[in-house]
Design brief:
about 500 residues, alpha/beta, FAD/NAD(P)-binding domain, 2 domains, 5-stranded parallel sheet, about 25% helix, globular, binds flavin-adenine dinucleotide
């Protein structure tokens, strides 16, 4: 059983590990020179730091004690993981996948396997290498293909225009910087510009929620509230009835009252209360939590000291000096950085395999497999807050799907119906999530995959610990596989 994993980021290396344990002959192809994806050299903007506190950014079988670590240390953890579990030897770095096509044969696309075409990164004229695999895992990253808004007047502006992924050491020094966007990357970059640039301006259409490192007026780390089963029970009910527990049936009035308290705490603990009203999020929690990152250190202070000039409003056009806002205000810039997100696209994938709907939302069953194709799965496109834990559980689910050992295998029509129902729920409770972002539903998402795998979702014996200790953490899911008498991993 030959399997190809496209991408050696966290999703790719954990998929490779689980597939190897289950007897697959695995090859991992990545266009970068290092494993680690977003966290590898050049994988994201310079200065990227992890938003995860201790024991959050880790896989079940290898503890990670780093606390809000930098990208270099995070990459080292991932490389160590790949080496420890025999994945590193399977990685072909500097190899870009340019096409994935089904091998022709009876049945649905992929039933007879897949052709993968690849070539050395950046060598557009190099010969393409064609290989046949029985299974393919696409782990090419949800944050890989830059999304920039189309604005009129680009030719008039002679300064530098970058996507956030392209910011490197020295990009800001001595220049007037405008950062466009309202998410974690935008706030990170404008905070950095405040210390390095001649001027730093932030233009955001709306102010997003940011999670503070510590909640309850700075007393407890966010994972003790947001990553517990009790905390998740305060969210609107999860779409899959198989994952709804009695605690999820808390009366909506009680939920609303508790969110009122959490909202005040978030405003206070994240520092929003110290900012002018127009720089505070104006939408009710928990909706839009999916778009929240962890509030970067220094952002609030830099705004208060006047080192960041924040503007809230839409963009209209480039000018010869920078940007014009819809209000008519002009902002001067030498460098414009668009921290405006990423397209979830797969330019190498056979056009006959449908993975998006007409609105551009991903249509994957469980956020992992396309209903119309066989022996093909996507890892990293069922995003939760603790994405690392999420990709590990998804890798287990996909491996069992490939081995046809899930509790049930729904038909194509049943998958389509399940996707429709889930997308309708996402639109309601996580607006703008693009069909891939499950935001704060870490534990419910885990429950759903475990339920499909026929594994217990209850991970600890003590009921209080089950509900009140952080559960959206990988070490709760250690030991999902074990060795049988032949040394083969079984569930
Ligand atoms: C600004 C920012 C901050 C973030 N902060 C956090 C955080 O604090 N904590 C957290 O858990 N997550 C964070 N994330 C999410 C982050 O993406 C995940 O941590 C994780 O890296 C996702 O892993 P992945 O394997 O799915 O994708 P990636 O890490 O993106 O890896 C994808 C890999 O696929 C490769 N690839 C793509 N196309 C091809 C191709 N055609 N051929 C060959 N290889 C290809 C890429 O080179 C890359 O190595 C952040 C993301 C961003 C953008």
């Amino acid at each position: 059983m030959r399997a190809c994993v496209v991408g050696a980021g966290p999703g790719g290396i954990v998929s490779a590990k689980v597939l190897l344990e289950n007897g697959f002959d695995v090859t991992v192809l990545d266009k970068f020179q290092q494993v680690g994806g977003t966290w590898s050299a050049g994988g994201c903007y310079d200065g990227l730091a992890n938003q995860a506190s201790r024991r959050l950014f880790e896989f079940a079988d290898l503890p990670n004690r780093l606390h809000f670590a930098g990208a270099v240390d995070t990459q080292r953890y991932l490389e160590n993981y790949a080496e420890t579990f025999g994945v590193l030897d399977r990685v072909r770095p500097g190899t870009e996948v340019v096409s994935i096509r089904p091998v022709e044969g009876p049945g649905r696309p992929g039933a007879s396997g897949w052709w993968i075409e690849s070539r050395p990164t950046g060598e557009g004229t190099a010969d393409v290498r064609r290989e046949r695999y029985d299974y393919v895992v696409v782990a090419s990253g949800a944050h890989h293909h830059a999304r920039l808004p189309e604005l009129p007047g680009r030719a008039a502006f002679h300064g530098t225009v970058l996507h956030s992924n392209e910011v490197r050491a020295g990009t800001f020094a001595g220049r007037r910087v405008v950062v466009v966007g309202g998410g974690k990357s935008a706030l990170d970059l404008v905070t950095r510009a405040a210390g390095e640039a001649t001027s730093a301006t932030l233009v955001q259409r709306k102010v997003n929620w940011m999670v503070p490192e510590r909640l309850l007026f700075g007393l407890v780390g966010y994972k003790w509230i947001l990553f517990t089963r009790f905390g998740e029970a305060l969210l609107p009910r999860y779409h899959d009835p198989a994952c709804v527990r009695p605690v999820d049936r808390i009366d909506d009035r009680v939920k609303r009252a508790l969110w009122w308290v959490i909202t005040r705490d978030m405003l206070f603990s994240a520092g929003f209360y110290r900012l002018p009203k127009q720089l505070r999020p104006d939408r009710a929690l928990p909706f839009h939590l999916a778009h929240a990152g962890v509030m970067p250190r220094g952002y609030v202070r830099a705004v208060r000291r006047g080192l960041i000039a924040p503007k809230v409003g839409a963009l209209e056009a480039y000018t010869d000096q920078g940007l014009r806002l819809a209000t008519g205000e002009e902002v001067a810039a030498d460098v414009i950085v668009f921290a405006t997100g990423h397209h979830k696209v797969f330019p190498f994938l056979d056009p006959g395999v449908t993975v998006h709907d007409s609105a551009g939302r991903l249509r994957l069953h469980r956020g992992i497999v396309p209903p119309g194709a066989d022996r093909l799965g996507f890892i990293g496109f069922r995003q939760v807050f603790n994405n690392i834990m999420g990709v590990e559980l998804s890798a287990h689910w996909l491996t069992r799907h490939f081995r046809a050992t899930l509790r049930t295998t729904p038909s194509e029509q049943e998958m389509e119906e399940a996707i429709d129902a889930r997308l309708a729920w996402q639109e309601r409770v996580l607006p703008g999530s693009g069909g891939y972002d499950f935001g704060p539903y870490d534990i419910h998402c885990a429950d759903e995959l475990l339920h499909d795998m026929g594994l217990p979702s209850r991970r600890v014996g003590n009921l209080l610990a089950e509900y009140l200790l952080p559960a959206g953490v990988a070490h709760r899911y250690a030991g999902l596989t074990r060795s049988d008498s032949t040394g083969r991993q079984v569930y």
